[in-house]
Specification:
Number of helices: 13
Helix content: 40-55%
Largest sheet: 5 strands, parallel
Strand content: 5-15%
Radius of gyration: 21 Å
Distance between the termini: 59 Å
CATH topology of the largest domain: Rossmann fold
CATH class of the largest domain: Alpha Beta
Strand order of the largest sheet: 2-3-6-1-7
Length: 288
């Protein structure tokens, strides 16, 4: 394969193929018709082996000429996050921006949010003291999040708002529902597309919503696709966030955790306690 030129290298590099989103993947295919993701990654690596990757890219030179500073990830604190989170949360819920969390909200709502806030701003001392952080797993800022609670009590809404707000920070993540993941896998038409799907799901920091209820995928054979993804992410030490509901209205964390063994296998279940901080979202459904 011929080594690409600097201009094409910069174009390929701009897609950040090691952590590509579904939308960016669509843009990639539109811009580079017929080019496989695996080949694009090889072109980038071959270029960086042949040339000095520390040299300024065309985009960096352009920004320097126009006095445009490179964007840096925003550093966050509790006040910064709270202001933007509340706006994103109520906007996603279809409520006006002026709405605030106040005394009319169940105290559980505030406690549910608090444990996630301390986690994402990196305040371990306050994080480990949070009421809704379970002692089933030793608290650690190096672990992901497994959030369990009643159906409709704000798990998805809270994580979706955090995904929106944190997208410009160094703790950003990308979320997918478990049901959508199955459908995405089933839309793959050949091995190349399956490889691209697997790369999308097993790189970067990912949030998988509503797990345990997705069906077995079917694409020229049956596949427990979430089990495969979680296994690879664990092997590659990738940070993962998960939400799931109580099973059969059981208000018992251990009962829900055992469902991971039934659905995804004993090995996935055993790794939960090493890979995740276990958080219980308390409070009843707000959909009723």
């Amino acid at each position: 394969m011929k080594t690409v030129g600097r201009r094409k290298y910069d174009a390929l590099k701009s897609f950040k193929l090691d952590d590509i989103t579904e939308k960016r993947l669509e843009d990639f295919h539109k811009q580079f018709k017929g080019l496989r993701l695996a080949d694009a990654i090889k072109m980038i690596r071959d270029f960086e082996k042949k040339y000095n990757p520390s040299e300024k890219s065309a985009e960096q030179i352009k920004n320097a000429k126009t006095n445009k500073p490179q964007k840096k990830a925003v550093m966050i604190d509790k006040d910064w996050l709270w202001e933007r989170f509340t706006k994103a949360y109520f906007k996603n819920e279809g409520v006006v921006f002026s709405t605030k969390f106040n005394g009319t909200h169940d105290q559980n709502v505030i406690e549910n949010i608090k444990v996630l806030f301390y986690y994402f701003i990196g305040d371990f001392e306050n994080f480990k003291k949070c009421k809704h952080l379970s002692n089933l797993s030793v608290p650690s800022m190096d672990k992901g999040l497994l959030i369990i609670g009643a159906n409709g009590n704000g798990k998805t809404s809270t994580m979706n708002a955090l995904e929106d707000v944190l997208s410009i920070t160094n703790v950003r993540f990308k979320g997918y529902s478990a049901k959508k993941i199955v459908k995405m896998y089933e839309r793959c038409e050949d091995q190349v597309q399956k490889e691209e799907f697997n790369k999308l799901m097993t790189t970067g920091t990912r949030f998988f919503d509503d797990v345990l209820i997705e069906r077995i995928a079917s694409n020229y054979g049956k596949a427990n696709i979430l089990s495969d993804i979680l296994f690879i992410r664990n092997a590659n030490k990738k940070r993962t966030y998960i939400t799931c509901n109580y099973i059969d209205e059981s208000l018992n964390l251990e009962t829900v955790l055992k469902q991971f063994s039934i659905k995804y296998g004993r090995e996935i279940y055993d790794r939960i306690f090493f890979d995740f901080n276990i958080i219980e979202f308390k409070g009843k459904s707000r959909r009723r």
